[in-house]
Specification:
Low-confidence stretches: 31-39, 71-100
Shape: flat
Distance between the termini: 67 Å
Strand content: 35-45%
Helix content: 10-25%
Number of strands: 39
Length: about 650
C-alpha cells in the first residue's frame, strides 16, 4: 500500500514539474514576444522620426535653392542619398543622409501631399510662397515575412515659415547706426525677431510698475515672443542698452523685483517677462525677384518685347461672351500681372463707390458697387498714360460707345461681364480692352519703382518690384482693405483681402502723385496723428541678402521715411495692422527721448494680423525652415 502511495506521489511530482516547465516556457515566450514587440515599437518610432527629419531637411534644402515650385521632379533611383521624395509618390531609402544606419533591416518611406495653396496639388486654388505638405511616413521592418511589413505609420503636417508670421522682423541695424528701440516709442504686438542685437533705449522716466489695467501686461513693449540672434556679452541677458537704466541690478545682475508680487522689470518690457526675450538662430533673407517674375508671367521664359504697362499671359480659351452681338473668345487668367516699362508714377487700388478710394469710372463699379480696380499712371515715350485692371464681383456693363475692340474683336454696343472676370485697359484714353476668365494668382510684379502707392485692396494680392535691382515702393497714403473697417483689427478668419507689398525698399513718401491728373504735391505728415494715424493693412517686406547699402539707415533695404528728420513737413504717425519685415532697419522719424512724442517723420506702432500665421498674401516671401504643425499615428493595414 505504501509503495502505491509513493508511486502516485512520484507521478504527481513529475506532472507538476512538467506543468511548471510549460508555464515557465510560456511565460518566457511571452516575455520574449513582448520584448521583441517593444524593440519593434522603439525601432519603428526611431525610423519614423528619421524619415521625418530627413524629409524636413530635404524640404529646407529645396527651399534654400528655390526649387520647391518646380513642376517636374526626377524619379529617384535610390543611389543618391540626397534625392528628393516625390509628391504623391512612394520614396524609400535605407540609412540616413549622414551615413548613420537605421536599425538593421529597417527602412522608411514618405509620401508628400501638397495642400491646395502649394504647387503640385492637382486642385490648386491659389499660391503661397510658404508651402504646406501632408507627410505620410512609414517605418518598414524588412526582417518580417515576405518583402517586409509596415510597423508604424505617422501623418504630419509640415508648414514652411513665412516672414508674414512676424509682427516685426529686421535683419540688423545699419553699420554704425545710432538707431535704438526706444521704449517710449516702440511697441510690437506679435512675434518679433532680429538677426542682430536687441538694442534697447530705456528712458529714465519709465514707470516700471505700470503693467496696464489689472497688471495685465498690456503696456509692455513686446507683446509676444521676441528673439534676437546676436548677443551682448557684457550684459547678463544678452541685450544691449545705451542707458544706465536697466531691468537688472548692476551689482547682483539679477532682475529687479517690482512692488507687484511675482513681477520684475522685465515684465514691463515684455509681456512674457524675461522668458519672452531670448536668443535664437538667425533667419536668412531670401532673394525673391526671379520667383516673383516667373509667377507673374507664368513662365521662366520672359516675353522678348513686353509692352509697356500691364501684361497678362493667359491660358487657353475657355468660353465666349457676347459684345454687341459679336462673340468674343475668353481665355482663362491663370497667372499674375507683369508690369513693364518706366517707373509707375502712381498706383491706386479702388473699390466700388468707396468714400475714400472709389473707382473713378462709375460704369466699372459693378451692379453692386463691389468691383475692384487697380489704376496706374505711367509715362511712356514722354506721354503719361493711365492704365487700369478691374476685377468684377457683380455684373458690369461695358459700353464705351461707338466702335471699340476687346480681345482683338471689333464691335459696338454693350457687353455684360459677369462676376469673376478680369478686364484690362492698357490706356484709358483708347477704347481697346482685354478680358479674361478669373482673377489670376493675385501677384503684380514690375522691374521698376512705384513712386506713389495707396488705396483700398479687395482680394488677396501682392504688389512687388524688383528686389535684386534695388527698386522701391513709396507709400503716399493709406493702404486699407475692403473687409475691415479702418482702425479695427482683422479678426480670425478674415483673409479675403490680404495685401502684400514687396521690394528692395518701402518708403513713406514725401510727395503724392494724383493717379488721374498726374499732379504732384508735397504731403503734410501732421494730418496723420497718433490718434488718427496712416493705416497700413498689409504685410510689408523690404530688403535683400548682401545689401550694398547695409551701412545706411536711410538708403538701405528696409522700411523707412523719406526725409525722416525734416520737421518742416510735419510729424505724423502710421500704424501697421499686419506684418513688417526689413533687412536693414531704416529711420522712420525723430522723437523726444523723454516723452516719446514725434518731432519729425512718422512715429509707428505694429499691430499683428494673426491670420498671417496660417494664410499669407500670394507669393509673400517665405523662410527656408519647416515646422511640424501636427502629428499623429495611423492604424496599419498594409504590407510593404
Amino acid at each position: 500500500m505504501r509503495k502505491r502511495e509513493l508511486g502516485s506521489a512520484l507521478l504527481l511530482t513529475i506532472f507538476l514539474i512538467i506543468v511548471l516547465e510549460f508555464i515557465g516556457m510560456s511565460f518566457l515566450a511571452r516575455v520574449q514576444g513582448e520584448m521583441a514587440q517593444t524593440t519593434r515599437d522603439v525601432s519603428s518610432y526611431y525610423v519614423v522620426q528619421t524619415g521625418l527629419s530627413n524629409t524636413m531637411e530635404w524640404l529646407q534644402n529645396r527651399a534654400n535653392a528655390n526649387l520647391l515650385d518646380n513642376a517636374v521632379l526626377t524619379l529617384p533611383t535610390g543611389t543618391d542619398p540626397n534625392e528628393p521624395p516625390l509628391m504623391q509618390t512612394y520614396y524609400e531609402r535605407d540609412g540616413l543622409s549622414s551615413g548613420t544606419p537605421l536599425p538593421s533591416g529597417w527602412t522608411w518611406r514618405v509620401r508628400l501631399f501638397p495642400d491646395q495653396f502649394t504647387a503640385g496639388n492637382a486642385n490648386l486654388v491659389g499660391a503661397n510662397s510658404a508651402h504646406c505638405y501632408k507627410a505620410v511616413i512609414d517605418a518598414i521592418d524588412r526582417n518580417a515575412e515576405g518583402t517586409g511589413r509596415v510597423r508604424r505609420r505617422a501623418v504630419a503636417w509640415l508648414h514652411q515659415g513665412s516672414f508674414a508670421q512676424f509682427s516685426y522682423f529686421f535683419g540688423q541695424f545699419a553699420t554704425g547706426s545710432n538707431l535704438w528701440l526706444n521704449l517710449n516709442t516702440f511697441r510690437v504686438e506679435g512675434p518679433f525677431h532680429t538677426n542682430g542685437r536687441l538694442r534697447l533705449s530705456i528712458p529714465s522716466s519709465i514707470d516700471w510698475n505700470d503693467l496696464g489695467p489689472g497688471n495685465d501686461g498690456s503696456t509692455a513693449n513686446f507683446q509676444s515672443m521676441s528673439t534676437f540672434a546676436s548677443t551682448d556679452s557684457t550684459t547678463p541677458d544678452g541685450i544691449e542698452y545705451n542707458t544706465s537704466t536697466r531691468p537688472y541690478d548692476s551689482t547682483t545682475l539679477l532682475p529687479v523685483n517690482l512692488t507687484i508680487p511675482g513681477k520684475t522689470r522685465y515684465d514691463r518690457i515684455a509681456r512674457l517677462g524675461q522668458a519672452g526675450l531670448k536668443p535664437d538662430n538667425p533667419i536668412n533673407m531670401p532673394a525673391v525677384s526671379t520667383l516673383m517674375q516667373e509667377a507673374a508671367w507664368g513662365d521662366s521664359t520672359m516675353p522678348t518685347s513686353p509692352r509697356h504697362g500691364i501684361n497678362v499671359n493667359p491660358g487657353n480659351v475657355v468660353e465666349t461672351l457676347s459684345a454687341g452681338g459679336t462673340s468674343v473668345p475668353i481665355p482663362k487668367n491663370v497667372n499674375g500681372v507683369l508690369l513693364h516699362g518706366n517707373d509707375i508714377d502712381a498706383f491706386q487700388m479702388q473699390v466700388g463707390n468707396d468714400s475714400q478710394f472709389p473707382i473713378n469710372t462709375a460704369a466699372l463699379r459693378g451692379a453692386n458697387n463691389d468691383n475692384a480696380s487697380f489704376l496706374m499712371r505711367q509715362t511712356t515715350g514722354g506721354t503719361a498714360r493711365t492704365r487700369r485692371l478691374t476685377q468684377t464681383y457683380s455684373d458690369t456693363v461695358l459700353n464705351p460707345g461707338g466702335t471699340w475692340t476687346i480681345n482683338g474683336v471689333s464691335t459696338s454696343g454693350s457687353m455684360t461681364i459677369p462676376a469673376g472676370y478680369t478686364l484690362v485697359q492698357n490706356d484709358t484714353s483708347v477704347k481697346t480692352y482685354e478680358i479674361y476668365k478669373d482673377y489670376g494668382n493675385g501677384l503684380f510684379y514690375g522691374n521698376q519703382n512705384i513712386r506713389s502707392l495707396e488705396g483700398k485692396n479687395k482680394g488677396r494680392h501682392t504688389i512687388s518690384v524688383n528686389q535684386s535691382g534695388n527698386k522701391e515702393i513709396h507709400i503716399s497714403d493709406e493702404l486699407l482693405r475692403a473687409d475691415v473697417t479702418p482702425g479695427n483689427k482683422p479678426t480670425m478668419g478674415t483673409t479675403r483681402d490680404q495685401l502684400g507689398v514687396v521690394g528692395y525698399a518701402i518708403r513713406f513718401a514725401r510727395y503724392r502723385t494724383d493717379v488721374n491728373t498726374g499732379t504732384t504735391a508735397q504731403i503734410n505728415r501732421s494730418q496723420w496723428s497718433p490718434n488718427d494715424p496712416l493705416y497700413v493693412y498689409a504685410a510689408l517686406f523690404a530688403g535683400k541678402p548682401g545689401d550694398p547699402n547695409a551701412n545706411s539707415d536711410t538708403a538701405g533695404g528696409g522700411v523707412g521715411t523719406i526725409n525722416y528728420n525734416d520737421s518742416s513737413i510735419g510729424a505724423g504717425a502710421f500704424r501697421v495692422y499686419g506684418s513688417l519685415t526689413e533687412n536693414i532697419r531704416q529711420a522712420k522719424g525723430t522723437f523726444n527721448s523723454s516723452t516719446g512724442q514725434g518731432t519729425s517723420g512718422l512715429s509707428y506702432r505694429y499691430d499683428y494680423d494673426p491670420n498671417f500665421q496660417n494664410v499669407q498674401p500670394p507669393y509673400f516671401p517665405a523662410q527656408s525652415n519647416f515646422e511640424v504643425r501636427s502629428w499623429n499615428d495611423q492604424p496599419i493595414s498594409e504590407d510593404a
